[in-house]
UniProtKB/TrEMBL annotation:
EC code: 3.4.21.53
Enzyme class name: hydrolase
Pfam families according to UniProt: AAA_32, Lon_C, LonB_AAA-LID, LonC_helical
Name of the protein in its database record: endopeptidase La
Keyword field: Hydrolase, Protease, Serine protease
Keyword S-adenosyl-L-methionine: no
């Protein structure tokens, strides 16, 4: 009866056969290059997102790591960047009107560096030539002319003053302290000794005359003040005219060179005015105290230099800190005071990628809320504001800058997990507006001839790129079979290329150990086995406990209310199957099914749901004409780490039916599969690991030829079993069954007919359902009598 449920040998594994493809080793194949395998939907989404020029069409690439997201994004972004122009350079210059707001200027790619050098050379030449010009004969001649004009004017003025002064017995002389008036005695100016000999009356007389003289000469001295101011202006104008000629000489060619930029012309005009205001700084090599950094204002901060590019930039940021991504303003510690200037404005990768593509990792950008919020604000406003993080964090600094924003025109690509995308999409409104393209990377691809060829070419490409030994056709077939195992599907291949690449590298190493010039099938098999061995210490310890019977498990005989279930345990990247004994005790009562794991809070919600579904099945099947007067306790024996998932719900139901009916279950057959309330078996995950786990236990305890595993029929497509298990099945030492319903499963486990209702709504006598129904009727009647007596 059970043979019809046995899975055929050919369905236990999808063996790869590449005989239709003509090659001996992967060296005969064209390397895959940058072509993406099995991700048509994702690649088209990325290309479409890169093609849309409208605002908000940034891209989020969602998927698991190792699926080729980074390598493809890098390749396709570089291809698209070749179609875009090289973006402008950006410089920051001193703002002579408001030093705390540096000016940003964009120049054609390469001109930023030119502008910086031009300015450096110009200021150097001006400093040299301004010093020289003030020592020139022409300048000295002009200066002397002004001095003589002033001297002649003063001499003439003194003559006028002396004419008036004689009337008051005063004389006027020109001294270092200016024009002085001195009283006369015998027509000769008095000295201090003469004045001290005067009587009080004589001194008083001199004071009266002095006051009258001051009144009479007021207009003359006012004229002198005006002349002084005029002469100073002439000297200043002489300096300006002298320096202006030099400034014009050096700046006129620069204005012509950069005439296309209005902001550059405006900067040159402000520069010229500032030099004329500060001519004194150019006259000496040593700056006055407090002005040591004066000439810093004439420097150029080459903020973004695209001189080496011939296309749009593609920038990958692997460490998305605030400063790395968004730029920064650095500070210098001067005697304990933090100071900065416009030359300390540093770009972030968002500025380096401006005009092209910026690729970020979600886990990095989302780990800092300030960085994420600032990035969104820049994308919304289409401009880069280089903020001061110290200010945002309320740190105290002496002063800060507010650089002029730079317009942004770039595409941002974030690479992250599905969880990150779903979280952002659900809770961040700005994210939905800014990242309208989602490229969804699958972890699997169809296993067809085309993808198998591409996988072979992928292997060949790695061999060429990494200088590895090439793989034989049989070795490639083994890799493809392993890809199906990783995908948990015989008709699919894993898209986790990192895991595939690891097998390629490790198989090459085993070939090297064998001194083989090529990688054979045996080397691939060795690489897979050794990888499992390296990660399998926990599995080994578990199975040692089974062997020592520290963990109790029967793999032969029959028992009532006892069954072997299967679970998958993951340790890092390695997963293995672990059998567990499940026992059920049933008795009269109204507690229903008691999930002991739940009672001690060691079961998950999905497992609890599976147990409740069993209650639904029992009620639907047996309680149409009577109440369920039964209590049933279910437990995973010797399980101390918790349990979740519903893959054991059918297993638990079989044990309940066995306990109620009294029909024993074969301990040689382990079971996996979930069940619904109608008794239909549903698929589960980890079917290969579960089968192989029970096989290892049976092999450990001794294969009898009766042992096997029962799985849902839907999981047949997932079978990619190890060669050892397939060989054991082929030799009749192990068996794998697929079932669709509880009825089919219970018959395999008990060799007793499940039973179906006849026209009189009765089950065949002796069938499982008959025995269960009879027992439940008996319990219900006893419970009713007990209630009546009470």
């Amino acid at each position: 009866m059970n043979n019809k449920y046995k899975i055929s040998i050919e369905n236990l594994k999808n063996t790869c056969n590449l005989d239709s493809i003509k090659f001996t080793t992967t060296k005969d194949l064209i390397p895959l290059g940058h072509e993406i395998i099995g991700q048509k939907r994702a690649s088209e989404a990325i290309q479409f997102g890169l093609s849309v020029k409208n605002k908000g069409y940034n891209i989020f690439v969602a998927g698991e790591s190792g699926t080729g997201r980074n390598s493809y994004v890098k390749h396709i972004a570089n291809e698209f960047s070749k179609k875009l122009p090289t973006p402008d350079d950006w410089i920051y210059v001193y703002n002579f009107k408001n030093p705390y707001t540096p000016i940003s200027i964009n120049l054609k790619a390469g001109l930023g560096k030119d502008f910086s050098k031009d300015m450096e050379n110009t200021i150097t030449l001006l400093k040299r030539d301004i010093k020289k010009v003030f020592h020139s004969k022409e300048y000295q001649r002009a200066k002397n002319s002004i001095s003589k004009e002033y001297e002649d004017y003063v001499n003439k003025l003194i003559e006028e003053l002396n004419t008036i002064g004689k009337e008051y017995e005063f004389a006027f002389i020109n001294s270092d302290r200016g024009i002085l008036s001195l009283p006369l005695k015998d027509n000769e100016p008095m000295n201090e000794e003469d004045i001290n000999k005067l009587s009080d009356e004589e001194i008083e007389d001199i004071k009266i005359k002095s006051d009258k003289l001051a009144i009479e000469t007021t207009d003359i001295f006012n004229d002198l003040k005006n002349k002084d101011a005029y002469i100073k202006l002439k000297f200043k104008q002489l300096d300006k005219d002298t320096v202006s000629n030099l400034i014009d000489f050096y700046l006129t060619p620069l204005k012509e060179k950069y005439s296309f930029s209005q902001k550059t012309i405006e900067y040159f005009n402000m520069l010229s005015e500032d030099i004329l205001k500060n001519i004194s700084m150019f006259k000496t090599d040593k700056q006055p105290e407090g002005f040591e950094d004066f000439f810093l204002r004439y420097k150029v901060n080459l903020f973004i230099d695209n001189s080496c590019l011939n296309k749009a930039p593609v920038v990958f940021e692997s460490n998305s800190t605030y400063h790395n991504l968004l730029g920064s303003i650095e500070y210098k510690n001067e005697m304990g005071i933090m100071r900065t200037d416009f030359t300390q404005i540093k770009p972030g990768t968002i500025h380096e990628a401006n005009g092209g593509y910026l690729v970020l990792q979600a886990k990095d950008i989302l780990s800092n809320s300030i960085t994420w919020t600032s990035l969104k604000r820049m994308l919304i406003n289409n401009e880069s504001i280089i903020g001061d993080l110290n200010k945002q964090l309320n740190y105290i600094v002496a002063g800060t800058l507010k650089p002029e924003p730079i317009p942004l025109n770039l595409k941002v690509i974030i690479i992250g997990s599905h969880y990150a995308y779903n979280t952002l999409y659900s809770y961040d409104e700005d994210f939905r507006k800014l990242f309208k393209i989602m490229a969804d990377y699958d972890t699997q691809m169809i296993r067809n001839k085309d993808n198998s060829i591409k996988m072979a070419r992928f292997i060949g490409a790695h061999c060429e790129e990494k200088n590895l030994r090439h793989f034989t056709k049989k070795a490639v077939e083994k890799v493809i079979e392993h890809c199906s195992r990783l995908a948990d599907h015989k008709q699919k291949l894993s898209a986790k290329f990192n895991s595939i690449a690891e097998i390629i590298y490790e198989a090459n190493t085993w070939a090297e150990f064998d001194s083989s010039p090529i990688v054979e099938k045996s080397h691939v098999k060795k690489a897979i086995e050794q990888k499992m061995y390296r990660n399998g210490i926990y599995e080994e310890k578990i199975f040692e406990m089974f062997e020592a019977e520290d963990i109790l498990l029967n793999v032969d005989g029959r028992r009532v209310g006892e069954i072997n279930g299967l679970a998958v345990i993951g340790v890092g990247e390695y997963s293995f199957g672990k059998p567990s004994k499940i026992t059920v005790s049933t008795y009269r009562g109204r507690a229903g099914i008691i999930n002991i794991e739940r009672e001690v809070k060691s079961s998950g919600s999905i497992h609890d749901k599976g147990v409740m579904i069993i209650s639904g099945y029992l009620g639907h099947k047996y309680a149409q004409d009577k109440p369920l007067a039964i209590s049933a306790s279910i437990v995973f024996e010797q399980l101390y780490s918790g349990v979740d998932g519903d893959s054991a719900s059918s297993t638990e139901l079989y044990a309940i039916l066995s306990s109620i009916s009294g029909i024993p279950i074969k301990q040689s057959i382990a079971v996996t599969g979930s069940v619904n309330q109608r008794g239909e078996i549903q698929p589960i995950g980890g079917v290969n690991e579960k089968i192989e786990g029970f096989y290892k236990i049976c092999k450990l305890k001794g294969l009898t030829g009766e042992q096997g595993v029962m799985i849902p029929h839907q999981n047949v497509k997932n079978l990619m079993l190890s060669d050892e298990v397939v060989e054991a099945v082929e030799n009749g030492m192990f068996h794998i069954y697929s079932v669709r319903t509880i009825n089919e499963g219970i018959e395999i486990l008990t060799d007793v007919e499940a039973g179906t209702l006849n026209n009189f709504d009765e089950y065949p006598e002796g069938s499982i359902h008959y025995l269960v129904n009879e027992k439940l009727s008996e319990l219900a009647e006893a419970e009713t009598c007990k209630t009546t007596e009470a």
